Amino acid sequence: MEGVMVMLLLAAAAVLLLLLPLLLPPLPPPPSLLLLVPVVLLLALLSLAFLPNRDVVVYGQQPAADQFFFRQ
């Protein structure tokens, strides 16, 4: 019974997403600076994902003596 309710809820959401743009008046475009927000978020996530951390540990090598102390 729970799965049926979830499917009905998803179907209702899909119907609303199809019908609401037809019923509501068109909205003005957002400010152009606001359009850069998704691009900045994407670049931040990509840099976090692919840029190496400066404290990378290479397995199989002995750590240097200065790696045991906190950097300031």
Question: Which features does this protein show?
Answer:
flat, single chain, 0% strand, mainly alpha, 72 residues
Task: List the SSEs and their pairings.
Blueprint: H1 2-23, H2 36-50
Could you please describe the fold and organization of this structure?
With 72 residues, the chain is mainly α. The chain has a domain at 2-51. It has 2 helices and no strands. The radius of gyration is 25 Å and the shape is flat. The relative contact order is 0.05. Belongs to the plant organ size related (OSR) protein family. The chain crosses the membrane at residues 33-51.
Summarize the structure.
51% of the residues lie in helices and 0% in strands. By secondary structure, it is mainly alpha-helical.
Distance between the termini: 59 Å
Write down the overall geometry: flat
Helix content: 40-55%
How is the main sheet built? none
Number of helices: 2
